[in-house]
Amino acid sequence: MSTRSVSVLGLGPMGQSMVKAFLEAGVEVTVWNRSTAKVDAMVALGAKRAETVAEALDANEVSVLSLTHYDAMYDVLGQAVDHLPGKVIANLSSDSPEKARAGAKWVRERGAEFFSGGVMSAGDNIAHPASYIFYSGPKAVFDAHADLLRPLSPQEYLGADDGLAQVFYQALLVIFHPWLLAFDQATAVISKSGHNIAQFVPFAVRASEAFPYFMEQFSVANQNGGWADLASLKMMDAGAQHIIDASEEVGVDAAFSHLAQSFWRKAIAATEAAGKPVSTYELMRGENS
């Protein structure tokens, strides 16, 4: 059996990108998906077709899963549990850390090795310079197959905890999702105010260059309980109100900013009640609430 061969189960946009990356690197790929149209598209590029999950597992030592969530893994691999012993499952699907740990246990109980991954990519563009993949699970298992998976994206192995890749992956999405909503709100304010979004964007990019500084500063603060100062918290509350006013004056939904303001106000109330600064970081940790 070739060490430069792999099976990919799940051909959504990310799974298709993985197949293309493997093929471009000269890796032999066997593919399986519930809908055959996506399989046909990958076969046209040079992949091999697996008619069943069992056939996909049998084709190679390593199978990469790119599914919607971990529950789908049970549905898919459950069709061929007798074909799991001796195989290696690399689940690069998104889900919670605990679901990743439970999934790892389930796979190992059925005789296969397992490690997990979280794909940090620019959309489904795993070849983008900013793309990389978090991995976690037994280091010996990951190391044995790291070279095979190298065509996908740069690798960041985090540790033996099966859920660790998802801890880091989901934590980064915690930052990304609000940014998406904030950018929509910001550009809606520009547009509804009668101005050009394209003129605004360079300034948004320029402002983002300060983000690393703030992350470094707040990471130090959060390692020491979080940043808080009553006068500054009140300034953030007032600033949030200005954002809300600017948005709602032109008919833009400011629900996201109302939510942000609610955290500043909770921190103000907690600070005044405690007689000492209480940070939003502490509140999110469930402390002083």
UniProtKB/TrEMBL annotation:
Keyword Oxidoreductase listed: yes
Pfam families, per the entry: NAD_binding_2, RedAm-like_C
Keyword Oxidoreductase set for record: yes
Example of a GO MF term: oxidoreductase activity
Alphabetized SUPFAM superfamilies for the sequence: NAD(P)-binding Rossmann-fold domains (SSF51735)
Coiled-coil regions listed: none
Alphabetized UniProt keyword annotations: Oxidoreductase
InterPro entries named among the record's database cross-references: 6PGD_dom2, 6PGDH_NADP-bd, HIBADH-related, HIBADH-related_NP60_sf, NAD(P)-bd_dom_sf, RedAm-like_C
Residues covered by the NADPH-dependent reductive aminase-like C-terminal domain: 161-285
Domain 6-phosphogluconate dehydrogenase NADP-binding: 6-153
Family: Belongs to the HIBADH-related family.
PANTHER family: CYTOKINE-LIKE NUCLEAR FACTOR N-PAC (PTHR43580:SF2), OXIDOREDUCTASE GLYR1-RELATED (PTHR43580)
Name assigned to this protein: NAD(P)-dependent oxidoreductase
Originating species: Nocardia coubleae
